[in-house]
Amino acid sequence: MKVLICIGGPTGSGKTSLAISLAKMLDTGIISFDSRQIYRELNIGVARPTSEQLNSVEHFMIGTVSIQQHYNAGDFEREGTVILKQLFKDKEYVVAVGGTGLYIKALTEGFDEMPEIKQESSDWVEENYRQNGLPWLQKFIRETDEDYALEADMNNPVRLLRAAKVIKSSGRKFSDFRKGAIRANDFKVLYFALCPDRQILYERINRRVDEMMNDGLLTEVSSLFPFRNFKALQTVGYAELFKMLDGEIALDQAVDLIKQNTRRYAKRQVTWFKNQGSWLQLYSMEEKENLELIKQHLYDLENGSDH
């Protein structure tokens, strides 16, 4: 029996460490389903695993795409499926880890084709966004597709624009197009989501942002400043420091904004994983406890008693 074990959860919850410990235990590799760690130019700001961590277990889908490339969940599904098949030739288990729900759904359930967008609908969305900015776009998504609003990175205008255009053009929710027939797989999937205490999570996030700044995040962002309008860089940790480099805000304001926006993003991630129904929530902060629980579920699955 082939089993894909998915470790999800919010940013800063300890997914990377748990996934590496699990992969070592099962002697297998790790597929990342993080839509930002996939870009090779992004490192500190996306909390990419350290060199030591990357060398301890074979990782896939980290640093494989340039920010200059257009990349989406459909691309991830195609590439991830190939890697998964290769790994399952020699391995009974594969570990997947990340926080991008759309990517792991694409890998495990298949990716629905989106409808063609009418030009007038695209123009209407673009014009409203140009005149009214991100707050208008966020409001439009929340009012027309609450399900997608819970799942999406609401600070990422690129994804919101795409969703808004599909909604406006089709007259249907964007999330409706993710509810087609789930693809049949020749492997089992187990889903586990880390769900730490919110206060502890927020403290971890604040501390990690400070560590990122100490590790050279500003230098990393400064080197990417010429590319600041690229879609891949319209994201938390980069957008705020670009504003600082543009002279719009002070450095301490930018750091506070990164913390605030990361906490908001983490809150949406927690909501998404809880709302899926298929993800078993791991509330313990102890990695050993979580590993034991995962081992028990694997045992139950192999012995036909998994619920």
List unreliable stretches of 5+ residues.
Answer: none
How confident is the prediction overall: mean pLDDT?
Answer: 93
Q: Structurally, how many domains make up the residues?
A: 2
- Supply the CATH superfamily name of the largest domain: P-loop containing nucleotide triphosphate hydrolases
N→C terminal distance: 17 Å
The biggest sheet, with number of strands, parallel, antiparallel or mixed sense and barrel status, is:
6 strands, parallel
Tally of DSSP β-strands: 6
Helix percentage range: 40-55%
Largest sheet, spatial ordering of strands:
3-2-4-1-5-6
Strand content: 5-15%
Assign the CATH topology of the largest domain: Rossmann fold
Query: What is the CATH C-level name of the largest domain?
Result: Alpha Beta
The class by helix and strand makeup works out as alpha/beta
How does CATH name the architecture of the largest domain? 3-Layer(aba) Sandwich
- SS field, number of helical segments: 12
Q: Note the run of SSEs as H and E.
A: EHEHEHEHHHHEHHHHEH
Shape, principal axes of CA atoms: globular
Work out the radius of gyration: 19 Å
Could you explain how this protein is built, in words?
With 307 residues, this protein is of the alpha/beta class. It has helices spanning 15-26, 51-56, 73-90, 101-109, 119-144, 146-151, 157-170, 198-215, 217-223, 239-245, 251-275, 287-302, and strands spanning 3-8, 30-32, 59-60, 93-97, 188-194, 280-282. The chain folds into 2 domains: 3-112 and 180-302, 3-Layer(aba) Sandwich (Rossmann fold); 119-178, Histone, subunit A. Helix 10 (239-245) runs antiparallel to helix 11 (251-275). The longest helix is centred in the middle third of the chain and has 26 residues, at 119-144. The radius of gyration is 19 Å and the shape is globular. The chain starts with a strand and ends in a 5-residue tail after the last helix.
